[in-house]
């Protein structure tokens, strides 16, 4: 969807400007972004691309980082096109209690993967000493799951020829927080990690194969007298 829209925007001779904003860079004051859109820019770890004019404006939060800040007269979609279509590899780990699925993608093609299960008991609803024993047992099962997933994650990296360009986690946020505390291997991936959590259901090979849609998803905002104001994903 974004690619189709952006192809229509390209017009270097149009009134207005195009701003490529690196992560952490503030948008120009002349754009007068609505507060919610300004907050989205400031919270983006990948930067933003702003197509601005007095009549209408579009803001794109890309799935990968804007590598170089730049300003153009008119609307220039060339660098955005290169950013979206550049060949990339991505290491992905999907994790929920009891299940994991991981693999490496080249573009949208899954080139290696590993999916498995490890039993973790559900929550105990009774109180007392039995509840405490249950909780300790459940925590032990969760640690075993995390240790196995951490081990296999390292194997995925070591068996891949080269180094993935990006690393993503997906699944249940609370489970992932606990996993991060347990898996020291994640420190080795810090330089390639993007911190948005991929939104997926129960990890499986089928779910993993559909992950590129989340990996390459951009967020699009439009605003101005003619454009109205709306967020979209594309």
List the helices and strands and how they pair.
Layout: H1 2-9, E1 17-21, H2 35-42, E2 48-52, E3 57-61, E4 70-73, H3 78-85, E5 89-96, E6 99-106, E7 109-117, H4 128-159, E8 166-171, H5 173-182, H6 205-209, H7 212-215, E9 219-224, E10 228-233
Parallel strand pairs: 5-8
Antiparallel strand pairs: 1-2, 1-4, 2-3, 3-9, 5-6, 6-7, 9-10
- CATH architecture verdict of the largest domain: 2-Layer Sandwich
- Mean pLDDT equals 87
* Content-based structural category: alpha+beta
Number of domains: 2
Main sheet summary: 6 strands, antiparallel
CATH topology of the largest domain: Nucleotidyltransferase, domain 5
Q: Which descriptor suits the 3D outline?
A: elongated
What would you give as the CATH superfamily of the largest domain?
A: eRF1 domain 2
Helix content: 25-40%
N-end to C-end Cα span: 5 Å
Q: Indicate the CATH class of the largest domain.
A: Alpha Beta
Low-pLDDT sequence parts: 226-232
How would you describe the overall organization of this protein?
- By secondary structure, the chain is an alpha+beta fold.
- The protein folds into two domains: 2-86 and 216-233, no CATH class; 89-203, 2-Layer Sandwich (Nucleotidyltransferase, domain 5), CATH 3.30.420.
- The chain contains seven helices and ten strands.
- It has helices at 2-9, 35-42, 78-85, 128-159, 173-182, 205-209, 212-215; strands spanning 17-21, 48-52, 57-61, 70-73, 89-96, 99-106, 109-117, 166-171, 219-224, 228-233.
- A six-stranded antiparallel β-sheet has the order 4-1-2-3-9-10, with helices on one face. It has a four-stranded mixed β-sheet with strand order 7-6-5-8.
- A hairpin with a 4-residue loop joins strand 2 and strand 3 (57-61).
- The longest helix is centred in the middle third of the chain and has 32 residues, at 128-159.
- The protein is elongated, with a radius of gyration of 21 Å.
- The chain starts with a helix and ends with a strand.
- 28% of the residues are buried.
């Amino acid at each position: 969807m974004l690619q189709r829209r952006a192809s229509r925007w390209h017009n270097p001779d149009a009134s207005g400007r195009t701003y490529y904003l690196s992560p952490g860079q503030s948008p120009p004051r002349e754009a007068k972004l609505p507060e919610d859109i300004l907050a989205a820019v400031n919270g983006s770890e990948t930067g933003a691309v702003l197509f601005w004019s007095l009549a209408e404006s579009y803001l794109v939060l890309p799935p990968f980082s804007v590598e170089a800040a730049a300003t153009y007269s008119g609307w220039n979609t060339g660098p955005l096109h290169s950013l979206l279509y550049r060949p990339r590899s991505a290491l992905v780990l999907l994790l929920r209690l009891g299940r994991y699925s991981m693999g490496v993608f080249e573009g949208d093609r899954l080139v290696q993967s590993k999916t498995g299960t490890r039993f973790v008991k559900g929550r105990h609803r009774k109180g007392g000493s039995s509840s405490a024993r249950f909780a300790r047992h459940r925590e032990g099962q969760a640690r075993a799951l995390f240790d196995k997933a951490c081990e296999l994650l390292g194997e995925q990296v070591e068996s891949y020829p080269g180094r993935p360009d990006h690393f993503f986690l997906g699944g249940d946020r609370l489970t992932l927080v606990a996993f991060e505390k347990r898996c020291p291997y994640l420190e080795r991936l810090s330089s390639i990690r993007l911190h948005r959590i991929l939104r997926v259901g129960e990890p499986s090979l089928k779910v993993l194969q559909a992950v590129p849609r989340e990996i390459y998803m951009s967020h699009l905002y439009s605003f101005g007298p003619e454009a109205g104001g709306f967020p979209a994903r594309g």
